[in-house]
């Protein structure tokens, strides 16, 4: 439950950051953070989880089993189930199973370093702790980026808690008046001489953004009924959208990757014919390619053999 709770908070923080600061590269931030986390986790230096390494070392010392003194699994079996379990759990490995299985699992460390051992041998508890620690670290990083917003939100919440009923009503009325004036502004005709596309706020997008995405570049698609797509991104995306798929279905052509970047009906039809012809050449044709042999050792294809047999010649 705690991990799910953290995941929900992290998802909300990421969503908020995407909406309020779209130029922040969250993936890049997380990639760098994950590499730092791995190094800190190994050294037991992750904030809030610093004792992990020292705890493990003390447990290892208490349940120390020096594998250099053991040359076979059978020798380890003699230690008994409890001693083997302590040695395994101290190293973060599964401690269950029979005495033989525990000894075999521990004996793997004689020739294989712990960090290179197959993950299936490790107990799930350590993995869960590591995942929780990573999520917490990601949340802290996002909170650092959103520090000013969080401070303002707390101040606003604290301010509202101190307001009387009359003050809250006065503030609400003020917000309603402000909202009405904003809606009046929206009703006024928007000045847009360059005919720029509208953004999420109902206003023309900035000209630099318009140029950056190449939204002045028109792409027409004959298969879509000569529909226009503005910008390279919208053009590339449309090959998977319903309008293009419907056009391809009407032509009787499957909308596969072979037909990406093809917008002409003539080109699409010609390519489909070539693909069908190629598929026909590679198809097995039993009438011509299946071989039959008569009693004299003569070889015929199926069609010829059947004709000669029907005529009584063989």
List the helices and strands and how they pair.
Layout (H helix, E strand, L loop, with lengths): L1 H19 L5 H18 L7 H12 L10 H5 L3 H10 L8 H9 L16 H22 L1 H16 L2 H23 L19 H6 L5 E4 L5 E4 L1 H7 L3 H10 L13 H18 L3 H4 L1 E3 L5 E3 H9 L4
Antiparallel strand pairs: 1-2, 3-4
Helix pairs in contact: 1-7, 2-7, 5-6
What would you note in describing this structure?
The protein is mostly helical and 314 residues long. It has 3 domains: 2-147, no CATH class; 207-282, no CATH class; 284-314, no CATH class. The chain contains 15 helices and 4 strands. It has helices at 2-20, 26-43, 51-62, 73-77, 81-90, 99-107, 124-145, 147-162, 165-187, 207-212, 232-238, 242-251, 265-282, 286-289, 302-310, and strands at 218-221, 227-230, 291-293, 299-301. It has a two-stranded antiparallel ribbon. Strands 3-4 form a two-stranded antiparallel ribbon. Strand 3 and strand 4 form a beta hairpin. The protein is flat. Residues 53-62 have low confidence and may be disordered. GO terms for molecular function: RNA binding; zinc ion binding. Keywords: Metal-binding, mRNA processing, mRNA splicing, Nucleus, Zinc, Zinc-finger. This is Matrin-type domain-containing protein. InterPro entries: Matrin/U1-C_Znf_C2H2, RNA_Proc_DNA_Dmg_Regulator, SDE2/SF3A3_SAP, SF3a60/Prp9_C. It is found in: Nucleus.
Short précis:
One of its GO terms (biological process) is mRNA splicing, via spliceosome. With about 325 residues, the chain is mainly alpha-helical. Helix content is about 60%, strand content about 5%.
